[in-house]
Write a structure and sequence with these properties.
6 strands, 136 residues, Metallo-beta-lactamase, Chain A, four-stranded parallel beta sheet, alpha/beta, 6 helices
Amino acid sequence: MKRRSLALSGDTVYSPSFVTASQGADVMFHDAMNKDMVAAMGRTLAQRGRANTAQIMTDIQGYHASPEDAARAANEAGVSTLVLYHMVPPVPARLIEPLFLGKATAVFSGTLKLSEDGMIVSLPAGSKAVKFSSGL
């Protein structure tokens, strides 16, 4: 019987150590931040006199991976499925997904999903399948 596994990152930039630890996993869960969007938010906040919040938009970029970096990690680890979660900024509509992902789909050719509230990811025993459903 094939053993199933997942790899889970959190609040991290691209990490070769995480890639090594993820080798052979079926699914990689990775945080993702669109740094261009966050930078634009920071500039707008600064223009509106919200210097402290604008600074946060700068600071958080040092400990979140871009969608492209998450895709690179998934590709190098050889996983078949990448689920992006803890997305900054949140993606409010499917129409925005391509803008948020940037070039991630060109970097990773496997299954790439953006997490949603209530998303259930199942790894059936004895299979290579990765199944998605909703608990809501």
